[in-house]
Amino acid sequence: MKILVTGADGFVGAVLSHRLVEQGHEVTGAVRPDGVTDVERARRETLSDLQIEYLELLDPASIRAVASGSWDAVVHLAALSSVTDAEREPARAWEVNTLGTARLANELGEKKLAGEDPLLLLVSTAEVYGAGPAELRSESDPVNPVSPYAASKLGAEIAALEVHRRTGLRVVVARTFPHTGPGQDTRFVAPAFLERIRFARKIGAPVVKVGRIDPVREFMHVADVARAYAAMIEQGRSGQVYNVSCGRAVSIKELFFMLSDALGHRVIPESDHDLIRPVDIPHLVGDSTKLRDETGWQPRMTLEETIREMVDAETD
After folding, report:
1. Which site from 109, 194, 240, 291 is most exposed, i.e. has the minimal number of CB atoms within 10 Å?
2. How confident is the model over 141-167, as a mean pLDDT?
């Protein structure tokens, strides 16, 4: 298949792009034309086996140009993906995540009406579920986003599925639960903890500043998430939403001490008001029965193995 991966230089995008190439697909990566971080630049250097196109989700002409290719599938990962960044710039989150997705879906819908049959795999987030009971979330649960990031991603889902109903465009939605692994940047909790604990070990500090550590999450390995997306491209049903999750509940506090022990430096987490999100979800762990039953996907990596990979990938 000819597959376009938007956000190919992102954390998941790079891993997914390599996997799709290994599976024999012809993969093109869409990346931002400017504003590249050092991490993104390093990832781009690993994408030499891809054709690269430039995509700016704030520019309708850029979206139209990228969507004009003859794609069998488009995996839409490009987004303002940090909850903190979205809280800082909520309007931009809506412009990038919702309006950008709506324009991309509409362009692909026009191609469907013209006789082509592309698939849009929209990568959303489990954060759309918002606060709820301490139970596994399923796709039939109500959505109740509590952050600009989650709300804008739910808006993207609504926009893409509306195009599906109006034009017949094949749309599959992935609601992905927390994931991590080597190469994730420190805007996210596991690599942020690793960086702080590693520094504390270096200077002999007994305390590390943290935000809330009572929320409960799950943490998949990024490679398992990429495998899920690859399976959904081939086997996901159009118009359906799928949880991508492992279902193992871990508190942020437990994660902190697992990382601390893996680094061999047991430290005390100390609350820092500046690191606390205004609104947080107490419990967010998913039920991926639907995805497993329909595609045969199963997570392969444990959290312990994931942490060991992350620790081994970094040196002082």
Report:
1. 240
2. 97
Q: Where in the chain is the domain with CATH 3.90.25.10?
A: 181-218+248-284+302-313
The answer for 206, left when phi > 0, alpha when psi is -120 to 50, beta otherwise, is alpha
Strand partners, 87: none
pLDDT number for residue 46? 87
Question: pLDDT class for 316, splitting at 50, 70, 90?
Answer: very low
Mean of pLDDT over the chain: 95
Which class in CATH covers the domain with range 181-218+248-284+302-313? Answer: alpha beta
Where in the chain are all domains bearing CATH 3.40.50.720? 2-179+219-244
pLDDT more than 70, % of the chain: 99
Residues 125/183, Cβ–Cβ less than 8 Å:
no
d(CA 157, CA 105): 10
CATH superfamily placement of domain 2-179+219-244: NAD(P)-binding Rossmann-like Domain (3.40.50.720)
Please state, in angstroms and rounded to a whole number, the distance separating the CA atoms of residues 55 and 59: 8
Q: How many CB atoms lie within 10 A of CB 269?
A: 19
User: What φ, ψ does residue 121 adopt, rounded to 5°?
Assistant: -95, 105
**What integer is the mean pLDDT of 256-261?**
97
d(CA 59, CA 229) in angstroms, rounded, equals: 26
